[in-house]
Write a structure and sequence with these properties.
This protein has one domain. 48% of the residues lie in helices and 0% in strands. α3 runs antiparallel to α4. The longest helix is centred in the last third of the chain and has 29 residues. The protein is elongated, with a radius of gyration of 17 Å. The protein starts with 6 loop residues before the first helix and ends in a 14-residue tail after the last helix.
Length: 129
Amino acid sequence: MLNKGNKLYSIFTSKCPQCHEGAFFENKFSFNILKATETKENCPNCGLKYMREPSFFYGAMYVGYAISVAIAVALYIISAVFFGLDMKQSLIVIALGLFALAPWSLRLARVIWIHLFIKYQKDKSQRVK
């Protein structure tokens, strides 16, 4: 199901949106937010320039917001419905959960954002640099 050529494969493995082979980030996952979002200049495999224009990844804030809202709702449902916590305790769980998952959600938002604009090109002759 999640093979090369599938958008979900490329998003969840943080691969290049065009060739689905090259790494998107400089570093492996880290809880250091500054290192977690360091993006490579170009794809090491196909040469795609990741920074399409200045401030390209500012748009990823909207995707990150949606991810954070989804996480907050899920944490609230888990804490309130399944564990029976009151509102104050649920808010603490949500705050801690969002803080702990911030590096992951930032990376995911950037990868999703670039995948909205770049299509997978199986044929190497059609790839854009």
